[in-house]
Write a structure and sequence with these properties.
The complex is a heterotrimer of chains A (222), B (336) and C (455).
Chain A lengths: L1 E5 L3 H13 L3 E5 L2 H10 L4 E5 L1 E2 L2 E2 H10 L6 E5 L4 H10 L3 E4 L4 H16 L6 E3 L2 E4 L4 E4 L2 E4 L2 H12 L7 H8 L9 H13 L5 E6 L3 E6 L2
Parallel strand pairs in A: 1-2, 1-3, 3-6, 6-7
Antiparallel strand pairs in A: 4-5, 8-9, 9-10, 10-11, 12-13
Chain B lengths: L1 H10 L11 E5 L6 E7 L3 H13 L4 E7 L2 H10 L6 E4 L2 H9 L16 E2 L3 E3 L3 E8 L12 H10 L1 H4 L3 E4 L5 H13 L2 H11 L3 E3 L2 H10 L4 E6 H6 L7 E4 L7 E2 L2 E4 L6 H17 L34 H15 L4
Parallel strand pairs in B: 2-3, 2-4, 8-9, 8-10
Antiparallel strand pairs in B: 1-3, 4-13, 5-6, 6-13, 7-10, 7-11, 7-12
Chain C lengths: L10 H49 L1 E4 L2 E4 L3 H5 L9 E7 L2 E5 L15 E7 L2 E13 L4 E11 L1 H49 L17 H49 L3 H35 L4 E4 H18 L3 E6 L4 E4 L1 H18 L5 E7 L5 E5 L32 H11 L3 E6 L5 E6 L1
Parallel strand pairs in C: 9-11
Antiparallel strand pairs in C: 1-2, 3-4, 3-7, 5-6, 6-7, 8-10, 11-12, 12-14, 13-14
Helix pairs in contact in C: 1-3, 4-5, 5-8, 6-7, 7-8
Classes of the chains: A alpha/beta (222), B alpha/beta (336), C alpha+beta (455).
Keywords (chain A): DNA-binding, Phosphoprotein, Transcription, Transcription regulation
GO molecular function, one term (chain A): phosphorelay response regulator activity
Pfam family, one (chain A): Trans_reg_C
C-alpha cells in the first residue's frame, strides 16, 4: 500500500513511517499542507494520514480542498482532539476515520484496513503466492477455489509472514506484532494461530514451517 | 308693618265688646293627650270638615281652632309663637314674611307642588281669586262689568245710583285687603283710577269679606270690589242675590297657606295636620274640602295666582307701605 | 446552575402604581380645582343678582319733602327667588339710622359711592351673602348718605355646588377608572416587550450565542446591545478556551504519540525482559494519561452539557449502529465481535453528543475487559421502556462493589493492570440521569457483566 503521511512533527513522522514500512507499506511524508497538496496531486495514494494542526494551516482546509477536487482517496485524520463534536465535524468534512494521539499502531493499522475495505469494495489487490490468493484488505484467503475468511489475528499473522517470505519470525516477535503490550498472552497462543493457518493452507503449495528453536517461516513450493 | 300694628292697637278698644277671637272652637275631647292650637283667618265653617276628618282617625287628639283677622293674626303670632301650633292665613305676604323671619318649621317629608310651597315650610292649599261681587237686582238694566275698566265706566255713568253704595277692604285694617290692593296696583294703573272713582262715591270700607257680603245681600252696598269670591260662593243665601265677577283684564288670585310654628310643642302632630290638610286638598271631595283647590283657578284663562316668593315682602317694607297707604288714603278718602 | 434571581419590586407594579397614583392625584386635583372654580362662578352669579337687587332698590331713593323715600319696585326682591326658596333680608340705612328692613344685619361700615361690596355674614342662624351699596342724596339742607344692603341665604348655591360636586366627582372617578385602565394596558404592552425579548432569548438553544437581531423599542436597545456584546464576548471566550484546549492537547499529545511510537517500535527489537518490562511500563503510562485526559474532558463536557441539553429526536438504533461500525476495527483487533441486537427504531428525545459519549465509554469499557474471541452484545429494547444493554462475556462485576462502581474514579478491585481512570461508568450514569433515566449494573447468570441504561 502507498500511503501519504501529512504530519509536521518529524519525530512522530519518522516513527510512523518506519513502523508502516515494517508492515510492508510505502509511506511518503509531507510536513506542510502545501507539500501535501503537491504530493496528492502527483502521486496515486491508497490512503492519506492527515494531522490536523499543521504549521501552514488547519488540516481541515486540506480536507475540504481534497474533496472539492473530487479526489476520493480515503483520509484518516490524526488528531489530538478527542471530543465527539470535533470528530463529528471531521467526518462531516470528508474524513473516513480518525485516530487520536497517542495511538496504538495496531489500532491505526486496523482502521486503515477497515477504511480500505470500505472504499475499494470488492476489487482488492491480492497477493498471490503459489496457488494461494491472499487479500489482506478484505481478509480472504483463496485456497484451491474456496474462499476462507480469516479472523483478525490470523489475517495479520498471514500478512506478516507473506510480506516477509523466507524470513524467520520468533514466537516472541510474533507475540509483539500480533498482541498489544498489555495483553497477557504466552507464546503458546502463537502456536494456536499458526495451527489454524496451517489448517486453512492445507493442500496448498504454501506452508508454514517450524524451525525448532528459531521460529516460523512461510515457504512455498515451486 | 309698624303702622298697621299701631293702628290696630289703637283701634282695639273699639272692638272691645267683641271677644278676643272672632271665633273659638274646640274639636275632640278636651282632655285628649295631644291638643293642637290652630290660629287661622278662615271661617270655622270652612275648616270644620277638615278638622273633623283629622281627629276621626286620631281619638287622642283635640283641636282648638281660633279665628281672627289676618293682620291681627300676624301680630299675635309674632308676640307668642309658642302658643300656637299651626298658623293658617290668606295674607300670603304676611305668611311669607313669617317664614322668612324664621317662625316656620321646615317639613321636608311633605309632598306638595313646588310653586305652592316655600322652603318646605309654607304650604298653599287653595286658590281664591279676588272678585267683584254685585247685587244682581241693582244691575238690572245695566251692563254687568267684565273688567275693572268696565266697572269704572258703570260707576261713573251711574254715580247717583252708586253713591255711598260701593264697598271695598280697608287696607289699613285687613292684611288680605292690603295684599289684593298692592297686587292690583302693581299690575296696572287702572287700580288707582278705580280707587279714585270709588273714593269719589263715598267708599264704604270694611275689614272683612263676610261683612261686605252681608251688606251686599241686604242692599246696603251694591258693589263690592276685591272680595273673596269663594266666600260669596260658600254662602247658600247669596246664590240668587249676588253675581260674582272675576275681572277678565288681570287676575288677582291669592293662595291660602299654612305653616307650623317653629316653637310648637307638638311638631309631629302639627306636621300630621298640615299633611292631612294638603292631602285633602289634592284627593278630597268638595264635602271633605270646602275650599277651592289649587287647580281650581289655575289653568283656564291663563289665570295664575300670586307667586309665593320673597318679593311679596316688598309692600311690607315700612317705607313703601307708608307711601302706598298715603296714596290710597288720598284716593279713597276724599272729603266730599 | 440557574440561581434564583433576587426579586426587588416589579416594573409592572411600579409603573402601574405610579400611573394609577398619578391618575388618582390628578382626579382629586381636578375635583378640587373644578369645584373651587364652580364655587367661584356660582358665587359670582349670586353676587350679580344681589348687586342688581341692591341697585334697583338704591336707584329708587329720592328726597321728598326733606325725607328719604325708597319706593323700590317689586322686581328688586322678585329677582331674588331661587329654586331652593332662599331667605331674603335687607336693610336700608340713612347715614347710620335704619330706615327700614331687618335690624341687626351685619353690613360693612363704609362702602364708597358707586361701588358694590360683597360680604358673608350670619343672620338668624343662617349664612348669608350680603351686597351693599350706597348713594349720597343732595338735599336742600344736608347731604344724606343712603346705604342699602341686600342679603340672601345660600341654599340654592349650596345645592348647585353639591350637584356640580357630584358630577365632577363622577367625572373624576370615571377619569380615574379610565386612566387606571389605560395605565394597566399601557404597562402591559410596554412590559410585554420585555416578555417578548425574554421569550426569544429563552427559546434559544443552549449553544446559541448569536446576536439578538429582532427589532426592539429604542429604550431596550442599550439592554439588547449589552446582551449581544455579552454573548459575543462569551462566544469569543468560549472559542478562545476551545482553541487553547485544542492547542494544548495537540502540543501535549503529539510528543506523547512520538514517545509511544518509538517505545512500541523499540519493544519489537528488544529481547531482554528487563528492558521489555520498562518499555511496557512506559507505554502503559502514556496510554493511561491519554485515556485519563480523554475521560476527564468527557466527564467535564457531560457535566456541563447535562445542564443545557440540546434535545432532539434521536433514533438509538441508528446512533448505536454507527458507533458499532466506528469501534469495530478496534474490536476486531482484539478478536472480539461487536453484535448489535435491535428490533427497529428506538426514538428518544435527547442529546446526541451526550448519548454517543456514554455508549462509547461503555463499549470501550466492555472491550477492555472482554476476553479474546468473545462477543460484546449491544441490545436495544423499546418495551416497556427504551433501554440499552451492553453485555460482555468477561469476568463480571464484583458483587459487593457494584453500587459503588459508578462513583468517580472508582475502579473495580479486579481490574488488575487494565488501564482506566474509573470515569467510564460515571459518565454513562450522568448521561442517563440527564435524560431522566437510570443506569443499572448486573452480572449475567451465564457469566459476564451487563450495564443497562434505562430511559
Amino acid at each position: 500500500m502507498k500511503y501519504l503521511l501529512v504530519e509536521d512533527n518529524l519525530e512522530l513522522a519518522n516513527a510512523i513511517c518506519s513502523r508502516m514500512g515494517l508492515d510492508g507499506h510505502q509511506v511518503d511524508h509531507a510536513a506542510k499542507i502545501s507539500d501535501a497538496v503537491d504530493f496528492a496531486r502527483m502521486g496515486e495514494y491508497d490512503l492519506i494520514l492527515l494531522d490536523i494542526m499543521l504549521p501552514d494551516g488547519d488540516g481541515r482546509s486540506f480536507l475540504e480542498q481534497h474533496r472539492a477536487g473530487k479526489n476520493d482517496t480515503p483520509v484518516i485524520v490524526l488528531t489530538a482532539r478527542s471530543q465527539v463534536s470535533d470528530r463529528i465535524s471531521m467526518l462531516d468534512l470528508g474524513a473516513d476515520d480518525y485516530v487520536t494521539k497517542p495511538f496504538d499502531h495496531a489500532e491505526l493499522q486496523a482502521r486503515c484496513r477497515a477504511v480500505l475495505r470500505r472504499r475499494t469494495g470488492t476489487a482488492q489487490p491480492t497477493t498471490r503466492v503459489g496457488d494461494v490468493e491472499f487479500d489482506p484488505v478484505g481478509g480472504h484467503l483463496n485456497v484451491k477455489g474456496s474462499t476462507i475468511n480469516l479472523r483478525n489475528r490470523e489475517l495479520r499473522l498471514l500478512e506478516l509472514l507473506m510480506n516477509a517470505r523466507g524470513q524467520v519470525f520468533s514466537k516472541q516477535k510474533l507475540v509483539d506484532r500480533l498482541f498489544s503490550y498489555d495483553d497477557d498472552v504466552s507464546e503458546n497462543a502463537i502456536e494456536v494461530y499458526v495451527g489454524r493457518l496451517r489448517k486453512h493452507l492445507e493442500g496448498s503449495s504454501v506452508q508454514i514451517r517450524t524451525l525448532r528453536g528459531l521460529g516460523y517461516r512461510l515457504d512455498h513450493d515451486g | 308693618m309698624r303702622y298697621i300694628t299701631v293702628l290696630i292697637l289703637a283701634l282695639l278698644p273699639m272692638f272691645a265688646h267683641s271677644q278676643d277671637w272672632e271665633d273659638r272652637q274646640v274639636f275632640g275631647d278636651q282632655d285628649a293627650r295631644h291638643s293642637l292650637r290652630i290660629l287661622s283667618s278662615t271661617d270655622t265653617s270652612f275648616f270644620a270638615p277638615i278638622i273633623e276628618s283629622f281627629i276621626a282617625q286620631r281619638p287622642d287628639v283635640s283641636v282648638e281652632y281660633l279665628v281672627t283677622g289676618t293682620a291681627e293674626l300676624d301680630v299675635r303670632f309674632r308676640q307668642n309663637p309658642d302658643l300656637y301650633d299651626v298658623v293658617i292665613s290668606s295674607a300670603m305676604d304676611l305668611q311669607l314674611k313669617l317664614t322668612n323671619d324664621g317662625f316656620a318649621q321646615r317639613l321636608d317629608s311633605l309632598v306638595h307642588p313646588d310653586w305652592a310651597q316655600w322652603r318646605s315650610s309654607l304650604f298653599a292649599f287653595t286658590t281664591e281669586p279676588a272678585a267683584i261681587v254685585i247685587n244682581t237686582a241693582a244691575f238690572d238694566g245695566l251692563t254687568i262689568p267684565a273688567t275693572r275698566q268696565d266697572l269704572i265706566e258703570v260707576l261713573r255713568r251711574n254715580a247717583d245710583l252708586f253713591y255711598g253704595k260701593v264697598g271695598t277692604y280697608d287696607v289699613r285694617l285687613s292684611g288680605l285687603g292690603y295684599l289684593f290692593a298692592t297686587q292690583d296696583a302693581r299690575a296696572s294703573e287702572t287700580f288707582w283710577r278705580l280707587m279714585e272713582v270709588i273714593g269719589s262715591l263715598d267708599a264704604q270700607l270694611y275689614c272683612c269679606s263676610g261683612e261686605m257680603i252681608d251688606d251686599l245681600v241686604e242692599g246696603r252696598i251694591l258693589v263690592a270690589y276685591n272680595v273673596l269670591g269663594s266666600y260669596a260662593l260658600a254662602r247658600a243665601d247669596t246664590k240668587d242675590a249676588l253675581t260674582i265677577i272675576l275681572p277678565s283684564d288681570f287676575p288677582t288670585t291669592m293662595m291660602r297657606s299654612a305653616l307650623v310654628s317653629n316653637a310648637t310643642s307638638d311638631p309631629i302632630m302639627s306636621e300630621a295636620f298640615v299633611d292631612h290638610l294638603i292631602r285633602l286638598q289634592s284627593e278630597g271631595s268638595a264635602k271633605d274640602f270646602p275650599l277651592p283647590s289649587l287647580d281650581a283657578f289655575q289653568d283656564t284663562n291663563g289665570r295664575s295666582s300670586i307667586s309665593l316668593e320673597p318679593a311679596l315682602m316688598t309692600y311690607l317694607d315700612r317705607l313703601k307701605q307708608q307711601v302706598f297707604i298715603r296714596e290710597w288714603e288720598s284716593a279713597i278718602i276724599q272729603s266730599p | 446552575m440557574t440561581d434564583e434571581v433576587v426579586v426587588f419590586g416589579s416594573l409592572r407594579n411600579r409603573l402601574a402604581m405610579i400611573l394609577t397614583g398619578g391618575a388618582a392625584l390628578l382626579a382629586i386635583l381636578l375635583f378640587v380645582v373644578v369645584r373651587g372654580y364652580a364655587a367661584q362662578i356660582a358665587q359670582e352669579g349670586q353676587d350679580n343678582i344681589l348687586s342688581a337687587s341692591v341697585s334697583s332698590i338704591l336707584d329708587s331713593a329720592v328726597l321728598r319733602d326733606g325725607a328719604v323715600q325708597l319706593d323700590f319696585p317689586y322686581a328688586s326682591l322678585s329677582m331674588l327667588s331661587t329654586p331652593a326658596d332662599d331667605r331674603v333680608f335687607y336693610a336700608i340705612y340713612e347715614d347710620s339710622t335704619l330706615l327700614s328692613g331687618y335690624d341687626g344685619l351685619e353690613t360693612p361700615p363704609l362702602v364708597p359711592n358707586g361701588e358694590r361690596m360683597f360680604t358673608s355674614a350670619q343672620y338668624d342662624n343662617a349664612t348669608v351673602r350680603v351686597a351693599t351699596a350706597s348713594r349720597t342724596l343732595i338735599g336742600a339742607d344736608r347731604p344724606r348718605r343712603v346705604s342699602v344692603s341686600v342679603a340672601q341665604t345660600q341654599d340654592a348655591l349650596a345645592e348647585t355646588l353639591n350637584r356640580i360636586s357630584r358630577n365632577v366627582a363622577g367625572f373624576g372617578v370615571g377619569f380615574f377608572a379610565l386612566a387606571t385602565a389605560l395605565a394597566f394596558w399601557g404597562t402591559s404592552t410596554t412590559i410585554g416587550q420585555l416578555s417578548r425579548l425574554t421569550t426569544s432569548v429563552t427559546r434559544r438553544g443552549p449553544q446559541d450565542l448569536s446576536p439578538f437581531l429582532k427589532p426592539v423599542p429604542s429604550e431596550m436597545v442599550p439592554l439588547v446591545g449589552s446582551l449581544n456584546t455579552l454573548m459575543a464576548r462569551l462566544e469569543q471566550s468560549l472559542k478562545q478556551s476551545e482553541e487553547f484546549i485544542a492547542e494544548a492537547a495537540h502540543r501535549v499529545r503529539t510528543p506523547l504519540a512520538t514517545v509511544r511510537s518509538y517505545a512500541e517500535a523499540t519493544l519489537q527489537r528488544v529481547q531482554k525482559q528487563e528492558n521489555r518490562d520498562a518499555l511496557r511500563s512506559m507505554m502503559r503510562a502514556i496510554d493511561e494519561s491519554s485515556r485519563a485526559a480523554g475521560q476527564l474532558l468527557d466527564h467535564a463536557m457531560v457535566t456541563f452539557r447535562a445542564e443545557n441539553l440540546e434535545r432532539e429526536d434521536i433514533d438509538l438504533d441508528g446512533l448505536l449502529r454507527e458507533l458499532v461500525q466506528r469501534m469495530s476495527p478496534v474490536a476486531e483487533m482484539r478478536d472480539v465481535a461487536l453484535h448489535l441486537e435491535s428490533a427497529g427504531p428506538a426514538i428518544i428525545h435527547g442529546d446526541a453528543v451526550l448519548l454517543q459519549n456514554a455508549f462509547r465509554n461503555l463499549i470501550d469499557n466492555a472491550l477492555k475487559y472482554a476476553p479474546i474471541e468473545t462477543t460484546i452484545t449491544i441490545r436495544i429494547q423499546t418495551t416497556p421502556r427504551i433501554s440499552v444493554d451492553v453485555i460482555d462475556q468477561g469476568r463480571g462485576f464484583v458483587p459487593d462493589e457494584m453500587d459503588k462502581l459508578a462513583g468517580r474514579f472508582v475502579r473495580g478491585g479486579d481490574t488488575g493492570d487494565h488501564i482506566g481512570s474509573g470515569l467510564g461508568l460515571t459518565i454513562a450514569q450522568d448521561v442517563a440521569h440527564a435524560h431522566d433515566g437510570t443506569m443499572i449494573l448486573s452480572n449475567r447468570s451465564e457469566g459476564g457483566a451487563c450495564v443497562t441504561l434505562l430511559f
